[in-house]
Design brief:
Largest sheet of chain A: 8 strands, mixed
Number of helices of chain A: 13
Oligomer: homodimer
Helix content of chain A: 25-40%
Distance between the termini of chain A: 31 Å
Mean pLDDT of chain A: 95
Number of strands of chain A: 16
Low-confidence stretches of chain A: none
Shape of chain A: elongated
Order of helices and strands of chain A: HEEEHEEHHEEEEHEEHHHEHHEEEHHEH
Strand order of the largest sheet of chain A: 6-10-11-16-15-14-13-12
Radius of gyration of chain A: 27 Å
Largest interface: A-B, 109 and 109 residues
Chain lengths: ~450, ~450
């Protein structure tokens, strides 16, 4: 059995788009899965999907079809091979169907198959992560996930950014947050394997990739990162993928230019290359999804300082707006409700909030000349609030060293400090959580539903 | 300072390739690093690299250059910004140089900069992983690493394979090898975080990705994998990237067709897109490297059964060939010396060895009708031996269940077995270690020298 001998749904749909490429009576051979099978005694219909396309193909059979007596018993979920004739149906919702000549079973499906032709809750499907890719919604999600991941590589490769595989196992963590997973080979002597170093799973590749930006100018990392936070929310996962570009000879303005251009590119790419899936999400998951995304793509992202943002929020409170936390003060860490007010109510579109108080941001961020703020930016979008954050990095050796000591980040990061001593330069970067971005683009509300095998506190099947 | 205002070395080299695109006297502005700086009192030369290209650009300055007194003191490693005029030098080794109008320091480099204009040992450079990307060899390696990674995505995306992010943290390991890293949040209660499940770092995404092949037909995973083996060899790392495609409705022959086509494609891609780097490796690292790779690309990979292989090895021993292990018997696990004899001496080119005794292979491999062997293949190449392995997977529920129980792999893999119950089909796949492949393609002899921050037993800096 060689793959080449058969065609796929995807190829049929592609040929359909080209005039006269798909013709009546052409005989095709396909393998795939039965999504449903119904017949009224004289004519039968199989919704057929071979995994190559989001859309199903309709197979039609009658008593004259060879093997009819077996075909009527094909169950939802079973694997079949078919031979049939193309019948164009331009007046119908599905532009063609296949009239079966013959079909036979490649792999049966037991009657207790949990994915039947009815609506299943996402909670139910989460428990069968090995089967849910066959359900429509998840079929669509993982297709978009694939295209989105490739769009990211393509964007950076077209612009000569270098992809760097930063390590998963590390002796330091970028944020100093402490919420890390430890990696051990032998519980009796947890640091023995790495010669006395305690090992943890990375929370960010940023510090590691900065060293590469100072050799290759424009670089990015895109890989798994981890948080051992015991947060059972719809937006937290213990394992998720992160995109972290780093650009040399670039300040915060350059960084924001890149973020804006990058985000627009990948959203456009997905809308163009996953039309069927995005229409599905727009209809079934989030009404107005495409409008939301088109608005982002067509907006000029507003840039506003944190200090201005605080003034706007104060004025909102004065004017009677009620936040959960109404106590707006310069120096506070904004909550999602505050961010959403700024982007949804005030700006009415995507925006960068910049120049944050230094004490609420990480040690590596460039100190501004006011002595109080750092050259950081958060990208805020309607409905979500912060979707990604970046900063110019502190390139001054003395300033950085002082901050690392003050904030307790000096141990084990001598090499990071050295980058400022040996041919440093201004450089900037940002971090974007891939899975949350996928939620935003598909309208899915739970991070567990956009990851192939989600890892969250409390369970670890698979 | 905006990136866009400056040009890069890479863009200059690209324009040089197009007739009349790069002209004498054009004024350019660049930022980058000084690789070396020498002058004889009246004329000076800076080897300049801005990270965008493997090749350096030569900057020329004289006493008439603005800022001459500072320029002469630019040290190896420092960061500079320059303005200069293009001077085409088609008769020289470097086809153009830049005559400086002005240059100034963006970031100084301390005198104790460890990378000086001389040959450093790879061992020495390994200890400064944050700086070694600036050394020629590592500059070349990480460029090739980048292109190779992208070639992999492009190959699969062009063929409509779906990229799946299989999990890093898992409750099972594919091989049952036991050499895994454990993941813990709290040492006092190691399984508490994941609700009583013990968590480890994945050794392979294969089992997880199989579920996706049975929904999407053709899929692949490409991500980090881990081994807690205490092996201090030049070919073992604790963390490395692996490529694992899985194809449905495909047998071992299809699998080998894919392996051969894939390997040729990515090698060709790198040779075409990293010409300068590959010439460097061919000259400085492995004489004959390009011949070796061209031989692979132009060979038809021979296919031979394990049983035939054993006969050939037995005959070699009879004819007087001395192996370290001369005791050739059907059922043995071949050593590298045996593999190399077959591919180097007997076949004289790349080859697949297929149909291995079942007891030396993993539980999930398809049992052949002889009852003794499984439909597995190892791809052997001269100089290395095995470079990757694949197999057709056991799709028969009862046969697989029996083997899982016999081989002790039944616990926690009920979901994997279920894939044979709910619309299974014949399917196949392979696993290819990315870092070892990169060693093969560049001629580098130590896995520590092809990973950005290698993780091996005994140390964990960074």
């Amino acid at each position: 059995m060689a793959q080449e001998r058969s065609i796929t749904n995807q190829l049929l749909f592609e040929r359909l788009k080209v005039k006269d490429q798909l013709k009546n009576d052409e005989v095709v051979k396909l393998e795939g899965w039965v999504r449903s099978n119904r017949n009224n005694g004289s004519i039968g219909f199989i919704e057929f999907n071979d995994g190559s396309s989001f859309k199903n193909v309709q197979l039609v059979y009658t008593k004259e079809t060879k093997n009819y007596d077996n075909i009527v018993h094909f169950r939802t979920g079973c694997t079949i091979q078919i031979e049939g004739k193309i019948v164009l149906t331009p007046e119908n919702k599905q532009p063609f169907e296949i009239h079966l000549i013959d079909a036979f079973l490649l792999g049966d499906c037991s009657e207790d198959y949990p994915i039947q032709k009815k609506r299943h809750s996402f909670e139910f499907l989460r428990d069968i992560a090995h089967l849910r890719p066959r359900a429509n919604t998840f079929n669509a999600i993982f297709r978009v996930r694939n295209k989105l991941a490739f769009a990211i590589h393509q964007y950076f490769q077209e612009r000569d950014f270098m992809y760097v595989h930063t390590p998963e196992i590390t002796s330091n963590d970028a944020e100093g947050a402490g919420q890390v997973f430890h990696v051990v080979s032998d519980f009796k002597d947890p640091t023995a394997f790495f010669g006395g170093s305690s090992a943890s799973l990375t929370v960010s590749g940023q510090l590691h990739v900065e060293a590469f930006a100072l050799a290759f100018r424009n670089v990015y990392t895109f890989g798994p990162t981890f948080r051992a936070e015991n947060s059972n929310t719809t937006r937290h996962a213990s394992e998720f993928w992160m995109i972290e570009p780093e650009i040399a000879f670039a300040d915060l303005e350059d960084d924001m230019d890149l973020m804006e251009d990058f985000l627009k590119y990948i959203i456009k790419y997905v809308m163009k290359n996953c039309e069927d899936e995005m229409n599905f999400f727009n209809t079934m998951i989030e009404k107005g999804l495409l409008d939301k995304l088109n608005h982002v793509v067509n907006s000029n992202f507003v840039r506003m300082t944190y200090t201005e943002g605080i003034e706007i929020l104060k004025n909102a409170v004065k004017a009677g707006h009620k936040f959960e936390n109404n106590n707006i003060e310069w120096g506070m860490d904004l909550q999602s409700e505050h961010e959403r007010y700024l982007t949804e109510v005030h700006v009415k579109g995507p925006m960068f909030l910049i120049d944050f108080p230094k004490h609420i941001k990480a040690f590596y961020m460039k100190q501004n000349s006011d002595g109080k703020t750092v050259a950081a930016c958060d990208l805020l979008v309607p409905q979500v609030g912060e979707i990604c954050g970046g900063s110019q990095r502190e390139e001054n050796y003395e300033v950085l060293k002082k901050k690392m000591v003050e904030m307790g980040n000096d141990k084990g990061l001598e090499w990071y400090l050295e980058l400022r001593k040996f041919g440093g330069c201004i450089h900037s970067g940002f971090g974007l959580g891939f899975d949350r971005l996928l939620m935003y683009i598909t309208g899915m509300q739970n991070i567990r539903d956009v990851e192939p095998y989600p890892r969250t506190p409390g369970s670890l099947k698979y």
